[in-house]
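Hey, I'm writing a tutorial for new members on how sequence and structure tokens pair up, and I'd like a real worked example in the thread rather than a made-up one. If someone can provide the structure for the chain below, I'll link this post from the tutorial.
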Amino acid sequence: MRRVFKAILPAVLCAAAGLAQAQMPGGKTITIIVPTTPGTGSDIAARLLAPRLSKALDASIVVENRTGASGTIGIGAVAKAAPDGATVLFVPNTMAMISSLYTNLTWDPVEDFEPVAQVGKMLVSTVVNPSVPARNLAELIALAKKEPGKLAYSSPGAGTPHHLRTEQFKQITGTDILHVPYKGSAGAVTDLAGGQVQIGMFPLHSILPMVHSGKLRILATSGDTRSPWTPEAPTFRESGINGLNDYDWVGVFLPKGTPQPVVDRLSKELLAQLSTPEVQKELADRGIIATPGTPAQLAALLKKELVEWKQVITAAKVVAD
């Protein structure tokens, strides 16, 4: 029996390797779909990794931003795509939110996708227009409680991480702050800097230029320790806010039914790139902390946050536009 096993094993391994090679669309075009606007964390990660994956997989790669309906359009396109490795989803933590917002989705975030790899995470921050007379979170909370409903916060749209995390913040602090949704991050940040709204909770990398130029004032950031980009700003925990979801994240998925060798190869190539100091530095320069995670780790993160965000959405009575 042992001799037979030795004889068969090399053949099995070669066959598996050959299957993986054959089923990856080498020499063809792979489309990476990003369901968010250019400049967001998932878009940055996709465009940084695309040329490296193109070389590793011997395939042309196109990055396509397919936005709308809080990401459901782009995510749904991948769910319906052929499970052959030619369509890849780079998606933020919106993946864990929108299934609790929409009752008519034609796909399920767990049942209709194959987790591939966790790419990275982004710190989030609370910022205010400089006209707001609050220098820290305690003062902001006191101000909001003094005049319930007078202060307003912007977000790129209903159901986005910016929206739901601020609702979570309101639940934790017992504050009443008006939500003003926009169609994308650009308008939400521009009007915050212009004073049309007073508060925002955005990924740190997306608002750093305006913080450094004085157009926005940062009050706090997420994480266990202070951000290396804004060491002057305390963390939420330092500010007495516990239980707030700490990070936006980027994950990679394939359509359900994609052959396991294809999933494994794409995961292997992504994790190899994400483990290099060069890629980690390039991501960090753009405000993304590399967190190479296996398919199992990504699946566990998704399932955990599906529960967390459903609780927030239910308590806030949030409904999709």
